[in-house]
UniProtKB/TrEMBL annotation:
Name recorded for this polypeptide: F-box domain-containing protein
NCBIfam families for the chain: F_box_assoc_1
InterPro entries: F-box-assoc_dom_typ1 (IPR006527), F-box-assoc_interact_dom (IPR017451), F-box-like_dom_sf (IPR036047), F-box_dom (IPR001810), SCF_F-box_component (IPR050796)
Organism lineage: Eukaryota, Viridiplantae, Streptophyta, Embryophyta, Tracheophyta
UniProt cross-references to SMART domains, sorted A to Z: FBOX (SM00256)
Residues of the F-box domain: 4-44
Annotated organism of origin: Kalanchoe fedtschenkoi
Family annotation (Pfam families): F-box, FBA_1
């Protein structure tokens, strides 16, 4: 190996997939140091992200099983689209040790998976108080310490979670993970945030960050929280509980402040749009994207694709395409969009027969993933990107170096923050 200088070796390693790099760490100590360095991990991830091939992508899908209930599990679904033909296949199946099914858990409390960035995913199992980081490429997973601010009150409901992995100018990875806690009182949702920081190894409690007044719909429990995404260092949550004022709530991960963005103005006043079935996501990893469910007078389904071309500028919302008419099933749940394969992934709720793929400028709907006979639904879905970021080591070149190893006790140094206010958003 002495024949390879770093200048020769690094360009070669940067072209290898993350799974191969994990194996090559055992070649020599010098290779391990290069592959494990934060700078290399960052540049490797960016190289593969920028070179992502059009016409091919992969997704992570969570499966919820029938009674007798088996454990929840993930599959990695590879999808390619070329010459008008859709090809999909299951590449891998993941059974994670902390995703054991609890027979006493609420039947609708399916685990939530959230893309945190840099190939890291955060999994939330609210009834079990489980929050875990997971890297599918390396198969590494880690439970976070329990939040000391957990509320046992039946008046409080944990409705959503988010996470953000950051690579800073100093060359280190860190992350923050948030839990949204809601109390419904006097027709208003009062939302608090429990926020964990790997840098501080502690939880903060932001009490009554924002308040959402329910007007004109029957949102209860969790069903008003459906979609969120990260962009520009902020978490974005689409809310429609006030039918007169649907909008996007933001949480700045650095400043730890709440804000808001507006959706396209005329959508608020067009009765053909069903915002309760719409999705907030990202397009091409660069733009906020709204996938909006619409029915015409003949009850035919369309899905409009809107993107915010200039972040933060309401007037820059632009409709780039419409998928439809969608003839199957009678009701669909839109789960996501992929620029790589040029289409939408939808879940057929009425037929219950799987995931479907639809080109976002077409009405051609094709089966993507049939639901196996032992599976109740496969309704949570994220596009998968590989990295070899690690969060289990003690080196300061690895993510979460300061986290208490595998600790399930509440983190120390936790505190209540008063940064947020009980303002109506």
């Amino acid at each position: 190996m002495e024949y390879f200088t770093d200048d020769m070796l690094i360009p070669i390693l940067l072209k290898l997939p993350a799974k191969s790099l994990v194996k090559f760490k055992s070649v020599s100590k010098s290779w391990e140091e290069i592959i494990s360095s934060s700078a290399f991990i960052y540049h490797h991830y960016k190289t593969f992200s920028d070179a992502a091939a059009d016409g091919h992508t992969s997704f992570l899908v969570i499966h919820d099983t029938f009674v007798p209930r088996l454990d929840y599990y993930f599959t990695r679904l590879s999808v390619s689209f070329a010459d008008g033909q859709l090809i999909s296949k299951t590449d891998e199946t993941f059974h994670l040790p902390f995703m054991k099914t609890d027979l006493e858990a609420p039947p609708v409390d399916t685990p939530l998976i959230y893309a945190a960035g840099f190939g890291i995913y955060c999994i939330f199992i609210f009834h079990a108080r489980t929050v875990a980081l997971w890297n599918p490429a390396t198969r590494e997973s880690k439970l976070l310490p329990l939040s000391p601010f957990h509320s046992p009150s039946k008046r409080d409901t944990y409705v959503y979670g988010f996470a953000h992995v950051e690579y800073d100018d100093g060359g280190f990875f860190s992350y923050k993970v948030g839990l949204l806690r809601v109390r419904f009182l006097n027709l208003a949702y009062r939302v608090s945030i429990e926020l964990y920081s790997s840098r501080e190894n502690s939880w903060k409690f932001f009490k009554k960050c924002f308040c959402l007044i329910r007007i004109g719909n029957q949102a209860t429990g969790k069903n008003w929280v459906y979609s969120g995404t990260n962009l520009n260092g902020k978490f974005h949550l689409f809310t429609w509980v006030n039918i007169k004022d649907p909008h996007i709530v933001t949480f700045d991960m650095s400043k730890e402040e709440v804000g808001r963005l507006e959706i396209p103005a005329f959508i608020r006043h067009d009765s053909s749009y069903d915002l309760t079935s719409s999705l907030l996501t990202k397009f091409d990893e660069k733009f906020l994207c709204l996938l909006i469910y619409r029915k015409n007078n003949e009850n035919v389904i369309y899905l409009d694709v809107w993107i915010m071309l200039q972040y933060g500028v309401t007037e820059s919302w632009t409709k780039i395409s419409t998928a439809g008419p969608i003839s199957i099933p009678e009701y669909v749940d839109v789960l996501g969009i992929s620029k790589s394969v040029g289409g939408l992934v939808i879940h057929g709720l009425d037929h219950g027969d799987g995931l479907f793929f639809c080109r976002y400028d077409s009405s051609n709907v094709q089966i993507l993933l049939p639901i196996p006979s032992d599976v109740y639904e496969c309704a949570l879905f994220v596009e998968c990107r590989d990295s070899h970021v690690s969060f289990g080591g003690t080196s300061d070149q690895r993510i979460g170096a300061n986290i208490a190893h595998s600790s399930r006790t509440p983190a120390h140094n936790s505190r209540i923050s008063t940064v947020c206010s009980d303002a109506a958003l």
